[in-house]
Amino acid sequence: MMLSTILTAATAYISTSIDYLVILMLIFSSTGKKQRWPVFVGDLLGTGVLVTTSLFIAYVLRLVPQTWILGLLGVIPIIMGIKLLVFGENDEEEAIQKGLTKNASIILNVAIITITTCGADNIGIYVPLFAQNAISDIVVILITFLFMLSLFCYIGFLLTRIPVLAEFLEKYSRYLMGVIYSGLGVYILWESGTLTHFFPSYF
After folding, report:
1. What is the per-residue pLDDT across 38-95, written as a single tens digit (0 to 9) for each?
2. Do 74 and 187 contact (CB within 8 A), yes or no?
3. Given 7, 47, 69, 145, which residue has the most CB atoms within 10 angstroms?
């Protein structure tokens, strides 16, 4: 059960952070060597705000008595996935560059960039995930998120040395994200019993 929770959490984090690897690469390329840790702390702070917001929304939604109703939240990732596959995403490179040139600390700037570029996607994925899991599972999810954040931050730094890989991710990340978003949405609908509730003869 714990392994399943870890894999689901890792998949959720990867789906919301594939494109953010390119953003991290741009951030590391625009900052000095001594600012690697401030970038990590800023990423952690921004992600922490998004996770806390998602946990609060999930807590409110958990007041809904039937689990299958919460499962309807799985429709959100599916819509997000289809939107990415069909319409793509906005180019945020200019906004990132402007954010890094403001007169504020690197930590604050990176936190703001993380929130503004990842906010809607992360909350849209994290809320359904948190809403259908017990507190013990949420703790496992948060630990997994912390590990994945550290790993992705390091990979984002490495991408500054492998621009070809960064270009590949920038070109194809929306397709990967779209498929994973949709898959997570279907998983949430299934795990919560929503599909069984509406289509009992098929499941």
Report:
1. 999 999 999 999 999 999 999 888 777 666 666 777 888 888 888 878 877 655 555 5
2. yes
3. 47
